Amino acid sequence: MVPQGTMMICNNTRVINARMKFQKATGASIEIFCLEPISPVDYAQMFQAKSSCRWSCLVGNSKRWKDEPLTKTLHIDSRDITLTARRIGPHGNSWEIEFAWDDDSLTFATIIEAAGYIPIPPYLNRLSEEVDSIDYQTVYSKIKGSVAAPTAGLHFTQEVIDRLIANGITMRELTLHVGAGTFQPVKSETIGDHPMHTEVFSVSRRLIDEIIEQLTAHRHIIAVGTTSVRTLESLPYLGALIMQTPDIKPEQMHVDQWNPYQEQFAQFDTLQALQTLSRWFESNGIEVLTASTSIMIAPGFHWRIVDGIVTNFHQPQSTLLLLVSSFIDRQTADGDNLAKPEWRKMYDQALANDYRFLSYGDSSLLTTW
Question: Region 16-31: what's the mean pLDDT?
Answer without folding.
Answer: 93
